Amino acid sequence: MENALMTKREFDKIDHKHNKAFFFTEMNFLMTHSGLRPGELHFLLGPTGCGKSTLARKIGMDAAKTKPVLFHLSEENVDDYKYKFNKQDRNLAILRNIMLVSENEAPESTKSDHHTFFSWYFENCYKSEADVIILDNITTSFIWASNRPEDQEIAISKLKSYAAKHRKAVLIVVHAKKEITNDWDRVLTPEDVRGNARTAMMAGYWYSMQMIVHPLGTIYFVRVNKARFHDNALWRSFKLGYDKKTGGITGDTEIDNDDLKAFFKDARNGKKKG
Predict the structure, then answer these.
(1) How many domains does the chain contain in total?
(2) What is the pLDDT at residue 207?
């Protein structure tokens, strides 16, 4: 048992760790808390079709400029995902630093039970020697799909333990509830996750991504819903840039939350007029 007193040196050491950027990123919403954090789970929530995978690829390609990255795919084939990467950026140094594994290519024997599947999953993590692991998409993964809420909680607990033990930054893409669509009229929260909402408490960082069908054009944005040790990042919203030619995210710009409310209001009024 210890008291709460710290020396200035001890405080400065931990403060530096919280504010150090470990992985490169051009995304400002991540830089509100100095980028992806080693040893932490980061969740990216959004409705089907809002661009979560596109944003995950951008984050992964940024990180791959300096660190090895592993993409674990639950539904897409490796070749299809490779094509999207190469269409977005033909930087060979980056592409060589990205590894891909798909559940579609996993031996059927690995899906006999959760324990066997996680053995296969973590074996891929070890082999890749990746510092950043991106799971796209956990909702359709054997880890999550059609499982009881308590099993989903155990699954997230295993991922959290792995991240903490090996100091890996883990980004988990997850769908919002089925009834939540891309014309939803409010900002999403972690409670809108499809599955066990208690898992939100186990993540260090949580972001919601959405699109607003605005009369003047579609607006893509992401909001920081949770950021451990980084209160200055909470509830900040960022408009995403999108390149139609490459199909990729180009960056993000912070927007005032009052402006975001106005975008939602304009979208609702536009639907009424229609």
Answers:
(1) 1
(2) 97
15: its two tokens: 């403060």
CATH classification of the domain holding 201: 3.40.50.300
Task: Name the phi and psi angles at 102, rounded to 5.
Answer: -120, 140
In a domain, 113, yes or no: yes
For residues 9-32, one letter each, b for 16 or more C-beta atoms within 10 angstroms of the residue's C-beta and e for the rest, the string is: eeeeeeeeeeeeebbebebebbeb
Amino acid in the structure at residue 32: T
Nearest 5°: the CA angle 211, 201, 227 is 60
**pLDDT given for residue 271 in this prediction:** 60
Give the count of beta carbons closer than 10 Å to the beta carbon of residue 122.
14
**Does residue 1 belong to any structural domain of this protein?**
no
Residue 185 lies in a domain: yes
Q: Which domain holds residue 116?
A: 25-273
What string of H, E and C letters represents the secondary structure of the chain? CCCCCCCHHHHHHHHHHHHCCCCCCCCHHHHCCCCCCCCCEEEEEECCCCCHHHHHHHHHHHHCCCCCEEEEECCCCHHHHHHHHHHHCCCHHHHHCEEEEEHHHCCHHHHCCHHHHHHHHHHHHHHHCCCEEEEECHHHCCCCCCCCHHHHHHHHHHHHHHHHHHCCEEEEEEEECCCCCCCCCCCCCHHHECCCHHHHHHCCEEEEEEEEEECCEEEEEEEEEEECCCHHHCCCEEEEEEECCCCEEEEEEEECHHHHHHHHHHHHHHHHHC
In a domain, 19, yes or no: no
- Please identify which residue in the block is written with the tokens 């893409």: 173
Closest CA relative to residue 206, chosen from 46, 60, 75 = 46
Cβ-contact 173, 44 below 8 angstroms: yes
> Predicted confidence band at 6 (pLDDT cuts at 50, 70, 90)?
confident
